[in-house]
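Course assignment 3, question 2. Fill in each field.
Student: A.L.
Task: Predict the tertiary structure for the chain below.
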Amino acid sequence: MASKIKVFTIASLALNVAVAGLLVMQKGNYVSQAKEAYEKKADSYYKQAKNIVDGQNSVIENNAVLWNLACSANLQASSSKEFAILEKRIVNPSIFSIKVTGSPDGKGKLRTVSWNSDYYIVASFDKSNKLVGVNADALLGKAEAPALSDEAEETDDVEESAE
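Answer field:
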């Protein structure tokens, strides 16, 4: 009977060691699975955050170009031709679009420089092609640029905020 107990004890001890070994191995597997899942999620979140930051940086860079053009035009340009020269020097035509239209009141023309429908500046010129002002309301978060007659007032605000 003692030999049966001895055999049973040895078998039980071997099984306990085997179960303990399996638990340790399985725990290691769980840890590596959790680590892989964490790294995958963290990498995904990082890429999403990086895309958001890159998009915001692009908005900031493009708006800085528009602000530079608006401020430079107020300081240096007195005519439509001088504004166009500044525009060619400052603005990248592959990103920005330029549109020239008549003013709503028919007393001049408007030159709109934009990189999308939400961010743009509007330069106003009278009939003799002299610069009346540059409207940067869209860059300030206002939806529409006012008519030519209102722009002289708004230009003073832009010049004050630029200083």
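Instructor remarks: The longest strand covers residues 108-116. The two ends are 102 Å apart (CA to CA).
Grade: pending
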